User: Fold this.
Amino acid sequence: MSQTVNVKLNVNGAAAEIELEPRETLLDVVRERLGLTGAHAGCEQGSCGACTVLVDGELTRSCLIFAVQCEDKAITTIEHFGSPGALHPMMEAFRRHHGLQCGFCTPAMVLTAIAFLEESPHPTESEVRSALAGNLCRCTGYAGIVDAVLDVAGVAE
Amino acid sequence: MKPAPFDYVRCANVPEAIAALSGDEGAKVIAGGQSLVPLMAMRLARPTLLVDVNDVGLDGITVERDVIRIGACTRHRRLERDPVIARVAPLLQEAAGLIGYPAIRTRGTIGGSLVHADPVAELPTVLVAAGGFVVVRSGAGTRVIAAVDLFTGFLDTTLEHDEIVEDVLLPVAGTRHGSSFCEWSPREGDFATAGVALAIERDDDGRCVALGAAACGLASVPLDCSTLLAAVLGETSASGALLRQIARVMRADLAGDPDRADLVGLLAARAVHRAFARSDERSAAAA
Assistant:
């Protein structure tokens, strides 16, 4: 057992002080300590993308950063974007284009797509595919996901 | 939570980090963590102390006449987008964009990638091709290590335990510089099967007067291919005959591994072709 430390986090605009072990990843903490289960634990080694969150506005694998490293940083998870009653336009587009089935990859896929369009509002299909290459989906075959992102971008398919 | 337990210290400057490293044989530096944390999750690495260097101020980019100095904690995302890097180190810019995925590049750092020394990683290959150096510091002072003296094997370098990379030095690209990083991987963003990094300089008559090349994925360290590709020297264009010769030479050198030999021959020819094309564009823009 290593030392525990007190870490002040800012997640979706709310402050939280948590006593934790340094080995707890940001993913562990948002899920297990804060109950924000939108970030999913898939491979936990950076390959699948299901745990993606924003750290200071930048796409980050929450399984590859320790929570203790996130003090003074602004963490944004999928819970920040829309709710079951008021879907974010990207979520609505995923629903419309059948961009999900089992839903495991979906929160991170949506989050990655939102962050991508903020940087590249008018992407080509190939740029969309590149932007999502680090998020694995085992259900859809990606076509519906790509259509959804292009739809939100207002790019004709 | 998969890693074994460890202690953690976030350092404010390099001497603090060196002191923390020196005080614990099991200590390990963490910057972006995009290579180290997966190893820890698999428990292939079990550091007893993580020395966080994200806040020690190693993220500057400065051009000093013919050398560009890049702070070790500079992230791949910045290498990919910084206009200074694009102008003076275009090979590095292209290679940075090939690393992993966007969410990996926002965290991963140039110093971290170099000292992790993965044999298929892009940045060690660039360092060898460009003939770059790393500046490392320990309690005893600083020393400069040339790329070819840095990498010793799979995930292994000549760095001592208490040494920290401060800066990466690369030559500044000339007005007729051309470069290319060509790699192949089965899925976009995944580890490459093999790759070739190439940089050329040309004189006012368009003749290639200098060449640096390296390949990854062929051995436990990036291989310097400058001598193998010497046929490019003196050439004024990437003619079909030259490209065929380059592919042949690379294939012959790897005769024991026919599939990879074909792949690397193709990648090398493609790299030569693109380097000349980019050199033409750069020369035209400078004129």
Remarks:
- The radius of gyration of chain A is 16 Å.
